[in-house]
Amino acid sequence: MINPNEIESRLERVLLTVQKPGRYVGGELNITVKNWDEIETHVALVFPDIYDLGISNIGLKILYDQVNLRPDALAERAYAPWLDMETVLRVNQIPLYSLESKHALQDFDIIGFTLPYETLYTNTLNILDLAGVPIFSQDRDKNHPIVVAGGHACFNPEPMHPFIDAFAIGEGEEVIHDIINAQQTWKKSNKERKELLLALAQIPGVYVPSLYEPYYLEDNTISSIKQLSAEVPSSVIKRVVGKLPPPPTHFIVPNIEVVHDRISIEVMRGCTRGCRFCHAGFISRPIRERSVKEVVDAAETAIRSTGFQEFSLMSLSSSDYAHISDLVTAISDRFGNGRLTISLPSLRIDTVSVDLMDRLGNRRGTGFTLAPEAATERMRRIINKFITDEQIIDTAKAAYSHGWTNIKLYFMIGHPSETVEDVEAIARLCNLIHSEGRRLIGGRAKVHVSVGTFVPKPHTPFQWVSCDTSDQIELKQNILKSKLKDRNIKLTWTAIEDSLLESWLSRGDRRLSEVIYTAWKNGAKFDAWQDQHRYSIWMEAFSTHDIDPAFYTHRPRREDEIFPWDHISPGVRKSFLLKDYRMSLEGKLRQDCREICFACGILPLYANLRRKNPGEIWRCPDVKSPAQVLVGKQE
Amino acid sequence: MRVRITFSKFGALRYIGHLDLHRIWERTCRRAGIALSYSQGFHPQPRISLAAALPLGFIGQAELMDLWLEKDEDLIEIIRLLQESAPAGLKLTAIQSIENHQAALQTQVKFADYEIIFLDPVDGEEIAIKIERLISSTTIRRTRRSRQYDLRPLIVSLKFIISDDDNPARLIMRLSASPAATGRPEEILSEFEIEPENTRIIRTGLVLKAE
User: Fold this and answer.
1) Which CATH number fits domain B108-208: 2.60.40, 3.10.100, 3.30.350, 3.30.70?
2) What tens digit of pLDDT does each residue of B169-192 get?
3) For the complex shown, is ipTM > 0.90?
4) Is A25's CB within 8 Å of B15's CB?
5) Helix A496-506 crosses helix A535-544 at what angle (to 10 degrees)?
6) CA distance A137 to chain B (A)
7) Which residue segments constitute the domains of chain A, with CATH numbers given?
């Protein structure tokens, strides 16, 4: 074992040979450094990409605070070293270490990864390797840290099943304590590692993949998923908190410049819109809001404790926040002195949004963002995001006339039922918005069109949908490139290879873990970085294991297919998703569920939690005795 | 109100560059509730002026910075508030009030003093001989960014201190640090064929021109 002093003295010799050494030294304002030897449980929280991206991750910050609040535990941070630092670490035999105390990651009791998206998988393996922790769960013994992962991508944990000891499904604020408690009890008992895994698997919301086994049909789809112990649940239901706890305010202030140098305050969690492509919209239900006072007070404390000049009010759909207008008034009253930049992302496409942004004041250098996603009524019905062209154009016009010069438009292509006409409509709409802009403000009017490619996600109504073929996507991208030629229209799109990788990983099964391992062994990492993407390595890895990548992307799914993630429950019923999928096939819209409950499954499942948090804390409409609905179903 | 602050920069902040340090001070002032004056113009910037950029990896023992404050405040109070709000690795050691019309701090810097600690054992005699040779030469031709220059006039003084029970071997030097003629300690090390990463470089002070 190498101690922190030795790590520090080796680092001193090498830090000046890498880019941005400030990434690797810690020492930021608002970190927590406890006395290692006096603390029972040591938790390393890892964001498996570079510091510059990871430092502002709000999920890890929440967990960092939760763990450090406990007198018997500490949390420290680690990030993926960039390629130059990785070489330096390996050459000088420096194991990956935590930034706070410079302890090697293998000295921790628990290593917790956040996996908000799938393209972090290879980095996760690389970090375990750099930490000197066995890559495979089965090779770890009682002296190794327990490796836990959470975050949105973990709603389909199967592709990462052999590498992670336990997945925390859902919200982490409470379950992290249960995991620490279980680890402490086990450590005192001096039992084998498998006893800890069994204990973890009994915590609600914790999935221990080694205690489950899928069986396959001849076509490689799943016939059943069985528990290997009678003590573990057949389905792991995600954890949610009944009421959002106070938001973090003492943000860690990086010493170097990072991607998001700002305060983030979560205004609400969950979304009632039901856009069918949106993973977050289905897995983060129910909708829970914070009060205006709580948000404004938190912002004030955070500004004082960090000195940041920018803060972002986060939610999946800001306009739907019940008190949005009051919030904007309170924020601009309190902070509207012109020196703060306040961002309010994910606004609905209507002129009210322009008014809200206008009242927030600061628009220096920022564009006005709208996300219509589709440009024809047909596609809008399929994806359940219904806005008229008129609404979009009126909003863009209002933004131009209120002083914004750049309108940023998000669109999505690649739904298999999308036609060339649907794509041409995107170009037509963008050109129309640009010409309206020219008319209003002349040559300063700019449009930035960002076109993403649809990736079907587990636990959404589109989990049955196949991906568009690469040829089709290329054709559609070329249509946009040829029709959006004005020099004041900027077009960006996603590389086809990047979308494919995300698609394989999103709906992957256990077999895919071998592909991930081989791809990593052969050099795949930083897969979220467009310039680092090694498509050929992935294709080779598929062929090494004789797996057809199209199985995950282009294969149509049977309606009764058992998916690899079916034993993981986001609280939304599969039957509800299936119904919504069928509605999509018929072009039927499902309205916002704030007013009417469509019985997605959340309310009966979390009935007790709801009862403990009555009134406005949840935005789900009141349904009479939700518990009885469940009983009725069972009969 | 213009104040001059002396501070040290060490620990994790050794690895933080000049522009980042500028932002760190800006945020420290904001947390401390000390309102800085802003520059005029289209993009007003808070008025902070650091005497001389401290290269990445160097420790600064007595760095200098001027701040322009919106309001007059008690000097002791300023230093207390700033120290409370500063990140680990910045320690304020002195403050004085400065006439507003004085020349820009950067233009007043004349010399910089450095101490270079060797992390590995070195041959003291060999270094002493090399120093002798450097000091006695009239010119030391070197190339920096493909431009020829003479290092010798940039060296004001240079001496070697051998290791003893408490301290490792080290070099003490004073180099020219005016904007037009700046000597760099790594250039001296390079004359000795020592890699900077095998040393710890401390800027122990900055010497200003007499007003």
Assistant:
1) 3.30.70
2) 899 999 999 888 899 999 999 988
3) yes
4) yes
5) 40
6) 35
7) 4-230 (3.40.50.280), 242-360+570-635 (3.30.750.210)
